[in-house]
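Attaching the record inline, Q. Sequence:
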Amino acid sequence: MTSVRAPALFLLAALLTGACGGEDPAASPPHAAKPNPHGGMAPAVSAAPSKPPIAWTTPQGWKEGHPSSSMRLAQFDVAADAEGNPVQCIVFGGEMGDDDQNVERWIGQMGPDAKAGATIAKSQQGGLKITRVAAQGAYTDSMRPGDSKAIADASMLAAIVESPGGKLYVKLVGPKAQVDAAAKQFEEFIASMK
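Structure, as predicted:
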């Protein structure tokens, strides 16, 4: 990697971390993981596929919008926060590094006390491997240097869904009341994947 390319990739990663969940950016081609200032390593990433490798059914009431980043495969407005800002469920594709490191980093975004109460569950469903994550705490989007987003009382629901054709990374992060109210729909969304 040249010295010109490395800063450009860091800037790309910083810019691609958006609404309600600190986007886990995908860039082309694969790159080495980099230290994350909030612990762990940022994921090694590859290009997001142009078509999702896994199909799903959108839960009733979720409003699908045009992805605000080329790294998002899909985004859904599931609620609005107290200020009227959308609370979104984001779907990313591509290869984003080690699953356990991603899960650790996601939980770390919820603050130092989140790990004790976080739940991680691994299962299989119709040929898919699924890792589900739930955590609560004071969310800080550590992937957006200079423009970090913080939510004092937040919930995160996330999943890594792996098929023979590729992986999806699904995150719903926002104010606790709105995310917790959408938990059943989030589970329906993950359960619909095939």
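The beta strands are 34-35, 41-42, 63-65, 72-80, 86-93, 119-125, 128-140, 150-163, 166-175. The two ends are 37 Å apart (CA to CA).

More tomorrow.
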